[in-house]
């Protein structure tokens, strides 16, 4: 294949589906050749200024043809682009083709090491579900685990059950604390975790017995910092129902945040992901709030170099009538809006306009969703809040005209 590149002056890579890393793009810039490609997946992060990027979502065919014609007839432009590409491929260590192949061979030749996974399980009044959850952990095919049960002031037998389970398996550690909520329980687990990897499980959920082994293997294969799996809703009397996208993927941290906000794959949930523990060094969940995942997960993904998604539904998300996130929308939506506003400010501080725009869109769409879903005086407050968001943030420029019009027109809906 390397010899084939020598026969041509320009490589056209018109990818419209998600491109996980872009090996062809990497090989092209390493050869110092002019490249035309798209803003798919992690490609822009790979090629930087060393390629012509065509927006796949805006008049794609015409713009692609125009760039192809320009490079075909303008040899100076073509040579200048090739020099930039070659310089970048040598300057950025992570994109050096020799280093890439060396790492790839090492990954393929190395079996998954038996590093410790710290599994953090917040526990609160789940005496009927706890044993099933813990059984799914102690019977994992990946055995090098530190299972941290955080009894968050349970008023039933859950705390006693934690101690009894710890007596049956030396890998289980128990924390008893006053009730502080899900965030406080997770944070307590993070504070004492000693493993090289972190995984969260809610105490009324459970895992397929091969979950952690498959995630560790996938993390090794992809050289990823975070690996998410698919999940399915499970019930007492109904068959399980898959929720997540069936297509696999691998992205840069920045692109992973976009995926989290726009697709049912990574999702914002903390609990369907295996993380390198170092990512959590300076990140904790906000105490005293619901929608804590919305306020936290994006920071971990953004801090990652590579994020992978394994679509198999390995995590089983149990649905019960008194689950905290069911109902009470009027009581909890404000925490969600607060989390998204914080996200907007976070990415604005990082000068990440694309991530800001996507967050603004999430904020506006969720406000509309809550407005449609409740019947109370809160609707007037939401209408006022929506107009405030439009005035403060505006409509993201990156979205299509029809969507812009729909968002602007909604300002005039009667409360």
From TrEMBL:
Highest taxon listed in the record's lineage: Bacteria
Glycosyl transferase family domain ranges (all copies): 5-87
Keyword Transferase: yes
Signal peptide bounds: none
Glycosyltransferase 2-like domain location: 118-245
Keywords associated with the record: Glycosyltransferase, Transferase
Classification via SUPFAM superfamilies: Nucleotide-diphospho-sugar transferases, UDP-Glycosyltransferase/glycogen phosphorylase
Pfam families: Glycos_transf_1, Glycos_transf_2
Name listed for the protein in its UniProt record: Glycosyltransferase involved in cell wall bisynthesis
């Amino acid at each position: 294949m390397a010899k084939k590149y020598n026969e041509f002056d320009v490589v056209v890579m018109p990818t419209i589906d998600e491109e996980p890393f872009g090996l062809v793009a990497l090989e092209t810039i390493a050869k110092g050749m002019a490249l035309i490609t798209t803003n798919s997946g992690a490609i822009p992060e790979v090629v930087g200024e060393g390629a012509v990027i065509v927006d796949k979502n805006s008049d794609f065919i015409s713009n692609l043809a125009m760039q192809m014609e320009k490079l075909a007839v303008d040899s100076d432009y073509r040579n200048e682009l090739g020099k930039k590409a070659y310089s970048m491929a040598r300057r950025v260590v992570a994109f050096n083709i020799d280093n890439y192949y060396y790492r790839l061979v090492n990954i393929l030749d190395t079996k998954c090491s038996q590093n410790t996974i710290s599994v953090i399980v917040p526990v609160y009044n789940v005496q009927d579900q706890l044993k099933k959850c813990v059984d799914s952990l102690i019977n994992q095919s990946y055995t090098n685990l530190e299972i941290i049960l955080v009894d968050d002031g349970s008023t039933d037998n859950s705390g006693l059950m934690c101690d009894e389970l710890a007596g049956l398996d030396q890998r289980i550690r128990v924390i008893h604390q006053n009730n502080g909520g899900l965030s406080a329980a997770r944070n307590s687990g993070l504070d004492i975790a000693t493993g090289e990897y972190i995984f969260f499980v809610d105490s009324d959920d459970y895992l397929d017995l091969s979950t952690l082994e498959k995630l560790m293997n996938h993390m090794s294969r992809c050289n990823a910092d975070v690996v998410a799996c698919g999940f399915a809703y499970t019930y007492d009397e109904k068959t399980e129902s898959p929720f997540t996208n069936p297509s696999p993927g691998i992205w840069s941290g920045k692109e992973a945040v976009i995926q989290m906000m726009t697709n049912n794959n990574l999702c914002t949930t903390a609990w369907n992901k295996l993380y390198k523990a170092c990512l959590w060094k300076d990140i904790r969940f906000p105490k005293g709030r619901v929608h804590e995942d919305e306020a936290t997960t994006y920071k971990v993904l953004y801090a990652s170099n590579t994020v992978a998604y394994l679509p198999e539904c390995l995590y089983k998300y149990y649905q019960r009538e008194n689950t905290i996130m069911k109902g009470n929308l009027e009581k909890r939506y404000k925490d969600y809006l607060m989390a998204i506003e914080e996200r907007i400010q976070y990415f604005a501080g990082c000068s990440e306009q694309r991530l800001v725009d996507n967050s603004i869109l999430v904020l506006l769409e969720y406000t509309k969703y809550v407005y449609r879903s409740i019947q109370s005086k809160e609707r007037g407050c939401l209408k006022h809040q929506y107009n405030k968001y439009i005035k403060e943030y505006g409509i993201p420029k990156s979205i299509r005209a029809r969507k812009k019009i729909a968002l602007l027109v909604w300002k005039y809906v009667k409360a």
